[in-house]
Amino acid sequence: MSSWAELEQACKECTACGLCQGRTNVVFGVGKKDADVLFIGEGPGEQEDLQGEPFVGPAGKLLDDMLSIIDLDRSKVYIANIVKCRPPHNRDPEEEEQEACIGYLRKQVALIQPKIIVCLGRIAAKKILYPEYRITKEHGSWVCRNGIWMTAIYHPSALLRDLSKRPETFEDLLGIRDKIQYVKANVD
Ligand code: SF4
Questions:
Q1: Domain residues of the chain, as ranges?
Q2: How confident is the model over 35-54, as pLDDT tens digits?
């Protein structure tokens, strides 16, 4: 599978896990197809399922605000999820569902070739970074794997529920901005 169109078409027809049964739309991903920065959430919620786009509704609005703090917007980054179909009642995607779907994300990464990956929340961090990842203690820290800098920050939904997490997230966002500048300085 070599092109975006082929990958998206295959994803939209996918029945590889049980999440296909309740979906309205497959939420494939959105944004700049050669973005330097890829944001990864866990899976679509109700509004995302209805609209077919990741991070819409209140959490999406907050993500937009977070991006604007560091001079980014949706046209400059790519946004995707670990699972492309909505888990019922917004439960966490199960490990088997994540494993069934992760191949699409891996192919998206191969096509985008991002320099930086930002996991949004605990589920994405555990899947992308390492299974023991503790978001409360490790958010904002960085690892470099295969030439890609990776970090995790709190999920916007968590920031809507708990305002006390916002100052830490502001610092993490500044760290992302610094890393973008570092990466650009070392490429140009
Ligand atoms: S969640 Fe992923 S693996 Fe499961 S049906 Fe949807 S696209 Fe296929």
A1: 4-183
A2: 999 999 999 999 999 999 99
